[in-house]
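User: My advisor, Dr. K., asked me to get a structural model of this assembly before our group meeting. I'm new to this, so sorry if the format is off. These are the inputs:
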Amino acid sequence: MLSNPRVRAGALTLPLIAFLGVTFIAPLGAMLWRSVHEPLVADALPQTLALLEAWDGLAAPPEALYRTAAGEFQQLQASRALGGVATRVNRVQGGSRSIIMRTARELRGTAPASWREAMIAAHPAWGEAAIWGAIRRAGERYTIRHYLNALDLKQDIQGRIVAQPQEQRIYLKLLGNTLAASAAITLICLALGYPLAYLIANAKPPWPNLLLLAVLLPFWSSLLVRSMSWIVMLQKEGVVNDLLVALGLVAEDGRLIMVYNMIGTMVTMTQLLLPFLILPLCAVMHGIPPLHLRAAASLGANPRQAFLHVYWPQTLPGVAAGSLLVFILAIGYYIAPALVGGRTGQFISNLIAYHMQYSLNWGLAAALNFVLLVCVLVILVAYNRLVGIERLRFD
Amino acid sequence: MRDKPPATFGDRLGRVCLVAFCAAVVVFLILPMLVLVPLSFNAAPHFTFTEGMLRLDPDAYSLRWYRTVLEDDSWLRAVRNSLIIGLAATTIATVLGTLAALGLASPHMPGRGVVTSLLISPLITPIIISAAGMAFFFGDIGLAQTHAGLIFGHAALCTPFVIITVTATLSNYNLNLNRAAASLGAHPVTTFLHVQLPLIAPGVISGALFAFVISLDEVIVVTFVGSLDQRTIPRRMWSGVQEHLNPEILAVATLLTLFAALVLITVQWLRRRGVH
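Assistant: The format is fine. Below is the predicted structure of the whole assembly, which you can bring to the meeting.
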């Protein structure tokens, strides 16, 4: 069978496909699963949720619901599992955690005649529909609420999809900021990289090799180290400010704030990503014969016309390859914004990391990841159309 | 030999502007890396230039931060972890990536576009997504907080770089050499080991170096999947930077940059020896 060249070629790729299946594709699958599957509340409050299912959300909740919920809260409290449940309800509706914890504390060891009155006495919120709706929503074993949340939407008590209140709409705005900053970084890289790539492709030896080294040294160096070095460069007592003060351009007490904000993120990321633009551009420019410009000149074109009508169109494949690569890499950046971005220079990745590490809202982190992944895939399709993913190379 | 028309004043001015602009871009690319070097020899516990340093006073410079790093157990452990994880991940990525690149380079490869996209996808996927997925899945299958988990995770992230580098080398390889070997009765494996591999070796080694450099710089998978026992050099730096940026970290950064320069020189040397 291996004598068939198609089978042989395919077989060579199989080990890696299998390896990535386990180490890369399966993790993506696990994440997709995590973004829609949240069994914790459903498993913890089965009877309460069954009664909530039967309740229409409009009439006053029946006494049986109060009794069942109070019973399950007390059980969970005894097994120290109530905190996790309350946290998840809280993610559907802020404030729920303290309501549930306080009620469970006050009801401990009591056996009132009316659970309804006892719970409302513990916290008046139990007389209203909102908290019950939140518990029902949090109890969905399979849920789209993380995706709604990631898109600044939520379901109201009747299950309609509505926008989050203004002050809680953060994710789409951050995603928009990330895309806008990435686009700006791509354009700055193009403006800085195009002339340098031109010089590398057209200068007389030994300049091309020396200039190429200046591009390749950062390319091979640690992203973490380079991000860090921009703190040293841009901070208040940093090299750039020192230089500006020494030159008298800036007063000693008027040192510029250039780091721990969006400026810091943009400057740093431009330097980190510039080689990814210059290298593919150089490869394309190397293939353009200098004869073309001279032919244009001999036909009477001035340098500007020759550039615009003869040179620039031929470099477009390199411009597309480099820009799209920079843009794709930029929107997923994490390290640089985390180090030099401060509060205002964060990207969507940083918020995802926050939910992974600190708020521990993994369902939301997973849903945000998929929103980001969709953005990347859209650009990747454009890249594949315009450039072809097989042509990706770094030399 | 070019017979150019005499350059006008405007041409020359344009040329000077171009060169000046490019010089500024080169400074922008290189200066931040060079700035760290003198600061790592700072005698004072700051990461700004002291007056003594600017006067080039020898007393303002010292090796104390390098000594601190070499005497610090946490740094030595980090070096050990980085080497274990980096070398193992590089080995896996290089073997699997080279095999896959050979398959992709074959003119008979079925579904090349789809397979290439799949195999390159770890490079394009934002690292936060890969790392979060690995944290979930490796946790489910018991690989979280193990060296094996980090080795597999890094190997997955590194393979695209091996594939890209080896594919570029293979595009310059003359397949007639394989046919010649086959016509002389060589088994395909013999042909690969004795004819093709020696010729594409520079590309394979470049790919391996690429993979190692990627692993050596990776922070997020280590943070999400690893524990304190798997702290690598960049992870150790990362927590250092967030607590307090001191010249100790700059000393490590300088060593890493030196390492990058050595890798760059090696790769350039390999390129010259590669098939063209």
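One thing worth pointing out at the meeting: Residues 9-64 of chain B form one domain.

User: Perfect, thanks a lot.
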